[in-house]
Amino acid sequence: MEVARTRVELAAALARLRAGGRTLGLVPTMGFLHEGHLSLVDRAAALADQVVVSVFVNPLQFGPSEDLAAYPRDEARDFSLLEERGVSLVFAPSSDEMYPGGDPVATVSPGALERRLCGAFRPGHFRGVLTVVAKLFGLVRPDVSVFGRKDFQQAVLIRRMVEDLELGVRVETGPIVREPDGLAMSSRNVFLEPEERSQALGLHAGLRAAERLWAAGETRCHRLVDEVRRAVAERPLLALQYAEAVDPLTLESRDEALPRTVLAVAAFCGTTRLIDNAELGRP
Fold first, then answer.
1. pTM recorded for the entire structure
2. Contact 169/136 with Cβ under 8 angstroms?
3. In sequence order, what are the beta bridge partners of 279?
4. ∠ Cα 224 188 205 (to 5°)
5. Which residues of the chain have pLDDT under 70?
6. Element (H, E) at 238
7. Is 37 a catalytic residue?
8. Which residue among 34, 37, 125, 204 is the active-site one?
9. Could you give the CA distance from residue 127 to residue 108 in angstroms, rounded to a whole number?
């Protein structure tokens, strides 16, 4: 496994990987990897000849009061896990290498979709996400790129960016990977105290309850969302930020729960912000 830290090193490594017309799969990450990230690596390996993983904590997607400085990092462990998974190349740039002129003047606007779900509470977050992903697509020129379904809104916005700007990258998503008790894997789970970790299961419990209600014939979205809210309210350490039922393409709220309607939830558990979702009818 090669590690590139500069654009020059990246370009040279990519030229070697592309030899003979081999295809490239890219998995963008912010590091502190867990099995959810590694499942995306496996998916990319099934879709392309060579896998490139970026490890970069992107400052553009953190707000002034968010946890950029505290975001967990363990580069040596990340590199070891990626090498074990057969990754060909890791791109691990510094902020100065990624943004040599400081914050970029030209950025990618998510448009109206930014104001939905997480974007309503994290202004500027998705502009930062789309901007860094667009830069990574430009630097790596992958054939396919894989993102996690846990960050559902992010995946929708990236796919729309690729389509609207004709970027020519195939965007795939991998399923949510959960701990044995159902908690969605997240790098931020490391911040949870033991009691918080237990109560954080309220998000998944609410989504599962809503899924069972829908499977029993309930199609009113407000009733399904109420199930999620009820489960969160039963855990005093959880502070709900939002719970909604939305269209999987437009992210607009739905009144009737059809197959593929997405139930999305975000809550603070102590000081740690957690998100989760479920797509109705998906196995």
1. 0.96
2. no
3. 262
4. 25
5. none
6. strand 238-246
7. yes
8. 37
9. 6
